[in-house]
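Researcher: I'm comparing several assemblies side by side, and this is the next one on my list. It has 1135 residues spread over two chains. Same procedure as the others: predict the full complex and return the structure.
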Amino acid sequence: MRVSLKWLRSFVDFSVEPDELADLLTMRGVAVDEVERVESSVKGVVVGIVEDVAKHPNADRLSLCRVSTGESSYRVVCGAPNVKKGVKYPFALVGAVMPDGTKIRKAKIRGETSEGMLLSGYELGISDDHEGILELGDEAVIGHPLDGLIELNDYVFILDITANRMDLHSHLGVAREIGAIVGERAHLPEAFGEEVPRRISEAIGLKVTDTQGCPRYTARILEGVKVGPSPHWMVDRLASIGQRSINNIVDVTNFLLFELGTPLHAFDLDKLVDRKIIVRRAGEGEFIRTLDGVGRELNSEITVIADSARSVAIGGVMGGEDTEVSDDTVNVLIECAHFDPCRIRRTARALGLQSEASFRFERWVDPTILPYAVDRAAYLMKMAAGGDILEGRVDVYPDPTLPEKVKLRTERVSKILGQRVEEIEITSLLESVEFKVNGSGELEVEVPVFRARDVTREIDLIEEIARLKGYDWIDSDYKCGVRVFGGIDTEGKLERKVREFFVREGFFEVISTSFVGSQLVSGVLGVPVERLIQVGNPIHAEERFLRPLLLSTLIPILTNNLRKRNRDVRIFELGNVFSRGNLPNGQNHEGMHIAFAAVGSREPTNWNNGSKAWDYYSFKGVVERFFDIFLPEIRFSGSGPAFLDDRLSSSIMMESDELGFFGELSCETCRVLDIPERVFVLEIDSSEIPARFKERGLVGVSRFPPLERDLSLVVPEKTPYQSVEAIIRNTAGEILDELFLFDLYRGGQIPEGRKGLSFRLIFRSKDRTLEDREINSLIESILERLGKELDVVLR
Amino acid sequence: MEREIEAIREKALGDISSALTIEAVDEARIKYLGRRGKLTHILRGLGTVDEDKRPKIGMLANEMKKEISKFIEERKKELQLQGVADEPVVGIEDITLPGQRRWQSSVHPLTRVFDEIVDIFYGMGFSTERGPEVEEEYYNFTALNFPPDHPALDMQATFFLDRGFVLRTHTSPVQIRTFLKYEPPLRVIAPGRCYRSDKIDASHFPVFHQVEGFFVDEDVTFADLKATLIEFSRKMFGGDLAARFRPSFFPFTEPSAEMDIACLFCKGAGCKVCKKTGWLEILGSGMIDPAVFEAVGYDPEKYTGFAFGLGVERIAMLKYGINDIRLFYENDVKFLEQFI
């Protein structure tokens, strides 16, 4: 919302500097986001003093003045009734520029030369007062430019209005806040336009049948207007807040929307069939073409303004094209009504049509200000477009809104704010924003109607007091006792450990979006679409699903990095994934997953060691280290899902549950995703981890020396490594401290159909020095079992 | 025969001591002790020697074999020791060659900020609660005193799912879930992911993160709110930073306050980042609205409390001088690397 300081000054007089005012408003909850200076185009205006006033010889209403600027004096023809000898006025010299850009010239007026012009506030563009020229005070120095004396520039505040303060969507509302700051009450500007003795009821028939949708309907009629351009002060004001001028009738309705916050609408009275206004619910499927030229189909939830033949406006949202004011319009019906906020909100939603009017009606418009607003509209239109105001207004208001009273216990104020405010101060704070306060101890506060929507309870009054007093005033003391202790929870601690693990392994954490497209998720990763949770109003239509797998966002991160020529990518993510149960009415499921992926070199390329790319076994090493720490109970089984290479992948099983998978993306997957590299991935459901994770204690460091044995075994080709290892470990028992496979070879002395596996076994006991003998016999039993069970021989 | 053996010994010892490499020693070993070596030849030929001389020559040859073997081992050791010192290792002539490194990495900058934030609150006696991201409208709006069909809903551009579910627009529904689970006193933070359907630009992304916090007890006041959050901002941004609270509006708090800190970039003088105001908004807060307590069955006459919500992205952007929120979600390795 933009407000102009010049405009605000028509409600309340203040001399606070714009920046300071912006701060004061912000600290009271009227947040000023920005202050914009709007440079006045006025040039060449100085302080002049009228030295002599004489009657114009040829015109009764004009006078002939001698105006001095100290250095010289000028002959000036003046039309203002208030011109007086010895008084200082703003004086535009020949060549001066006016707000609308026109230049002052030497001119002959009714035969007398005029060398300049004495100006009114209206002509200077600083007020709408054009009743007379602007008298300057004693502080004005003759001959000095006017800029230093009067602020000719305007300032526009860009406000961020909170959703509760519907009253602030107008200059009047903001002026009331400024009034409270400067200790003055905002006054309403002139609204009385002279009426002609012809009753409005003779010119229009009004009937409101939808009083629920339209609780109040008022209107005035102006006959004999001349539609044309608006006066420049109004054009200026509208321009200052970013509104385009249309014509002198429509501009007034716009002007008042921003001035008072009350939307108005002007109908061409002669286009209303039978000169009738009926406010009713629309018929189902009823049609109207609105001002924006769009044809719209209505429903019975919508309030329309109709004449006896058809609807002529969507109440509170937008007028119809048929009855729009045009250049030929002569008679105008000015409507000012109050519409139900919920109904307007639904109407605007249903039609996809938001207007400045619907925006305000949705937020609730003060129904008690409508008569004033429609009067002021008639007054301003008459001023701008001429015509006659018919006597009286029509006004249907069956259920008037009255101010509500709210109770306030003064001790409750300190209970919430932590600091005492005296009753007398509570009263004066509330009165500064037009609340009425009665009683003592328990106060009875009458809320002004324009705040009726946001102040309905005691706590609202307490907020009002806090805001008006200023939050700075409240001490920042810790006052309440500590009755509860905190600290990190198990999940949080574990998440940190997981992250720590991956950082140790050189993987970067990524945090990605939750939205994915079906192409990747279903097409590539094979998750059925019916298992996906769908967003009804996605930002991108394609990405309307919530990710069922972290891989569905990890893979795009990976490919984006590759596309940017980041060749070595090691990433992991912890995050929630979403899916929907199998059944047609399946529950939403949300749970934490862990995923990681690697591509490129597994060590930085170096002269000393060459460049080693990730392969299945180097990736599996990370996988094994991960599970050793976090979930040692798992086992690998079979191959992973179809998008992985079926030879280089496994499912990760916990008892009979499949927790996830790891392996290399298949060639086909890489082809579809256009990835020219080998990519290794893992994803698991991590919900088992918190329950099963065990913090490790020290198992003891042996003081006794180890014994090492190397075993070179010849193993049938088809026998998996795992079964060989299992027998060795089983047979050796606890005494086997470490085991690793340090060589795998074929050919040479190894016969066809067999492979050579070389193990190093390190034995160590916690409580004694091992003897060769003992280990030798252990090795013999290992070999014996290997031979018997797996047909393995020593090389 | 004995002389022949002696001559072999002489020659062998000579060859071995003059061998300059381990390979040369091995060659000598093969030459004398190998299968076709000279000494082996003699031992094999013992059968042709006179029977009475046989034991003596055999013994001599065996001793000789032992002696040469020992000599070979010693010479090998000698050469090995020399070799360690002399071996021409690549690079030893240029120690300015770069060292070999391992990959380094880091947690995501948002995680870092998350951890920093929650650790400050843990230190102040807060503990963690969590809630789902796919949330019921009831928890996300209704129980938080959002009236239906109210423009306040427009503040929170919502992603709608079916059956009354939404993607939570803030972490505040965790307040409700916690209130329904426990009785006061409660001092809780709820970190998590939220969603809003704002148009994507430098400061908006449909996914973002918040840390919710709330404190409910019998005598919690606005003064406690200020004390807690000022302490937080001092720990987060540095000790002497000015902070201010200004009135605002959230349906679930009243009075509501935005907290600003003096702009980190211009120290309050006014710059582009703070839009010349000298202040940066860092969080929203307020006293929990009695309507919220009523919705969860707490007695608002007995209990009071404050709540706050801070945007993790916003704080991370301020802290690290990041001007585009999308960088967090792009996860370019070159970006992530800068947080090692």
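Model: For your comparison table: Chain A touches chain B through 95 residues (CB under 8 Å).
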